[in-house]
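Appendix B. Worked example

We walk through a single record from start to finish. Start with the input: the chain for DNA repair protein, Acetobacterium bakii, length 732.
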Amino acid sequence: MSLQDVTIKTEYRSLLDNVVKEFYNPLLKEAISYQRAVGYFSSSALVEITKGILGLVKNGGKIQIVASPYLSEKDIAAIRSGYELREQLIREAIVREMKVVQSDYEKKSLNLLSNLISDGILDIKIAFTENENNLGMYHEKMGIISDNNDNKVAFSGSMNESSTAMYLNYETIDVFCSWNSTGDCDRIIQKETAFNSIWNNCEPNIHIIEFPNLKQEIIDRYKRTAINYEKDVLEYQDFNSVQETEGPYNMMPAIPENIKLHDYQIEAIDTWEKNNYRGIFDMATGTGKTYTGLGAIVRLSKILSNELGVIIVCPFQHLVEQWVEDILQFNIKPIVGYSASIQKDWKKRLESAVRDQKLKTTNGEFFCFVCTNATFSSEFVQNQINKLKSNAILLVDEAHNFGAAYLSKSLIEKFNYRLALSATLDRHNDEEGTEKLYSYFGKKAIEYTLERAINEKKLTRYKYHPIIVTLNEFELEKYADLTKELGKCLMKGKNGKLKLNEKGKIIALARARIVAGAKDKIAKLEECILPYRNDRHILIYCGSAKILTEDQDITPTDIDDLRQIDAVTDLLGNKLNMKVSQFTSKENIEERKILKKEFSNGENLQALIAIKCLDEGVNIPKIKVAFILASTTNPKEYIQRRGRVLRLAEGKEYAEIYDFITLPRPLSEVNSLTELQMQKEIRLVKNELSRAEEFASISMNMCEANSVLEEIKEAYYIDENQINFEEDFNYE
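Next comes the structure step. The output line below is what the pipeline stores for this chain.
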């Protein structure tokens, strides 16, 4: 056989493909050479590809690996202080990353690794970049596999040479075969040339260190017995790893070494544990709710000897993907379930996980399923949950949503451990829904406010600029007509209080759109953004009055939303020549990842023009200036939105928020209103002021912001004690 006889795809994705079983091992069995350059190397990778390596050894092959050490900031600072310390500190950094042997399979595999080094089959060189005395990691990730017939397969992508990259991280590689197109051949030649240049220390700004003592360290640590490759190869090939057959090996939740929980996070977990593993983490957006929740899972899993089913639920697809990124860091490979999940077989995976836990199969007693609200409440998932026979925890992010009737019915007693995460758990104008949440999840284990987070420097400070905009004559007339219609749509609820019927909810949404889409906002935005036209990390938030239905896990973008966002895009992109992009539900997950990366970089993209991203939990810490064109009267929503703008980021001393306050008419016209006209408009004004007062209260420029708000209060004769939100049956 040769490499040509192996079925090879053009792309492999670690959460879809078993990269070890389908790519590495089949190719290496037919190879005589394996050259690999990676940004990060761990001995754990060679544990996974043992069977393939043995085939290569049997063919008389050789392995060359160039890797970069994982250097901490402390390491780099120490190296910069004296050239003579460099090799010693790099060696110590690599030794830190050497795998602690646990299973019999690891013992045998790492014994093979040490034999390969001592017998001259495997050679490892360490690379780092150095330019004008600036030391850095060598980040390239590529590989070339060759056989006896001069067939070659080259690959490149995001995957490092470690078992975490192969099994836990979401990684991809692109593959090129020499017997395919001319383009593939050219790519392979380029990669071979680059690898040989690096290996021979000829590549500019990349330095190679050969460590005879490092190789001896590996031999001393891992070598147990000498290997007779002719005799022992069959024994090794028959000794399967769990990864090759079932998936992640030894998937035990653990807090990663590079993450240190703050004292308040540990205290929250302690309190949750004392309350029989039930409770609420009421933490401001950006203060580490996700890590605290995952830390709680790690704590519970250890106590239960990893006999635990974990169900994590959050409202939106994009929020699920952010959770997946964090979950993987905690040594958990999740099943990812929602309508457009990249794991197309997630239903089969979930069925198997529930069955394996029930049967207590080896390495099957722990599993993690992360999904959207819509998926969790579906008949299929609820049926699987009802089949659970062992310990299970339900962790709900943005848990206030589960006070709604259609979601609260899925809060079943099957879960003996429960955890709710939310920046604002209390539901707006819904005491019954709020009570359901407290009844099911229990008491608050922590209440970490946004003000405390700013004071303790977990979130950045901010300046608040309220910008007054007004409805034009047509908008005001339409707003008044809809308000009149709302009065005809009232009905008594179960608690005796008035509420809107279904027709009223539709009318309220239409009225909210008038406020959100006021045309004056575009003109005021142009005035406000001119000083920033050459800046970057700008967000223009257009919002949306649309709400999710029960079966949706992504907010649809309709024509009314697009009307404003297209007008903003035209203003910034065409008139002001700024580099901008829209960020809506039209962009898929991969496109959003690219946009977030480009936005953070700031070179090709100055501003994002977004709908709903502040509600969907999108994490973009680099946002420095936010123009909020469309806000909400719902405190839980606008408090969350503000928190997302205040995330810490390098070089971000403070954030700026421009909040467009919509009033019925210019303040100069208010004096001419009759008392009846004033009453019809006062509620909109008070509701806008309620948000503005909250934003201004802890801003850096509180006095300046309040002076604008005082003008509004004086014009409408509003007393300080009358600012609280007044029910006007707004439905958002």
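Two observations about the output. The mean pLDDT is 80. The longest helix spans residues 675-697.
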